Amino acid sequence: MRPFTWLAPDTTQEAVALLREHGPGARVIAGGQSLLLAMKERTVGPSHLVSLGAITGLAGVTADPDGALVVGAATTYAALTRAALPGWHGVLSDVAGDLADRPVRNRGTIGGALCAADPRFDVPAFAVGVDAVLRISGPAGDRTVPAAEFLRGNGLTTIGQDEILTAVVLPPLPTWDAVVFEKFRHRVFDAAIVSATCALRHGPDGSPVAIRVTVAGVSATPTVLVVDAASAGRAAGDVAAETVLPDAADEPTRYRRELVRTLVRRAVDRARQGSA
Hints:
The protein has 276 residues and is an alpha+beta fold. The chain folds into two domains: 5-51 and 60-170, Uridine Diphospho-n-acetylenolpyruvylglucosamine Reductase, domain 3; 176-272, Enolase-like, domain 1 (2-Layer Sandwich). It has helices at 12-22, 35-40, 77-82, 90-97, 102-107, 110-116, 122-129, 147-150, 233-244, 251-272; strands at residues 5-7, 26-29, 48-51, 61-63, 69-72, 133-138, 141-146, 151-153, 156-157, 164-170, 178-184, 194-202, 208-216, 223-227. The strands form four sheets. The protein has a five-stranded antiparallel β-sheet. The chain has a four-stranded antiparallel β-sheet with strand order 11-12-13-14, with helices on both faces. The longest helix is centred in the C-terminal third of the chain and has 22 residues, at 251-272.
C-alpha cells in the first residue's frame, strides 16, 4: 500500500472542497471494503483519502414526505439488516443481510457498493431493479440520477471526481406491490454469479399491470427488462436469457444462460404470488 494523507471533514461541503483541492489523487472512503483491498493490491494508489465517517447525516434511514425511503450512503449493511423497513422496502434489509460475511457487513456501506460498480454486487443490482434514485453532492450543488444511469461498467460510474454520493432513494411503497431478489453464488460469502430482481405492480382487479425484471452479473451493468405483465415466469426467464447472453455452445455461457432463465422465472413467479 502506498503512503497517503488521511482527511476527516465535518461536512459534505468540506469533503467536496477537499476532493476538488487535491484533484485526481483524492478518493472518498466510507467503509473501505473495496477501496482498501484495491490499495493493498496496488491497483489504486490515492494520495489523499477523504473520510466520510465524521459527517453527520450520511448514515441512517429516513422517509421523504411522499413515502420514498432515503438511505444515507454511509449506512452499513449491518445497520440495514437491523432496520425495520415496511412492505417491499424490507427486501433491502434482506439483501444487505445476505451478502459477504459479518466483518464486511459491519463495515461495508450501501454507497460504497454502488460506487465500486462491481457487476456482481447485490446492492447495485437491487437499486437498479427497483428504479432507485441516487443523490449526489458536488461543487455545483446537489443533483439526482437514476441508479441505472449511474452505473457505467465495471468500476465506472457517472460520479465526478469531486462529487460525493450522499443517499440512495427507494420509490414510495405504492410504486411496487411486490419485489423479489434472487441470486446464485458458489459459497455463502461469494459475490453472486447471477442475480435477478423482479418488481411488480398490481391493478385494481389484482392482476399484474407492470413487471420490471433486472438481471445482473452477466454484463458490465445490470440489464433492465420490462416484461409483458401477462407473461408467466417461464416466458420471462426465456426472454431474459435470450436478451442478456448470446446463444453460444460453450459450457460457461450455457451455464449462465440457464442460471438467468431459472432465477428470473423464480423471481417473477414469487412476485406474482405476492411475495414482498
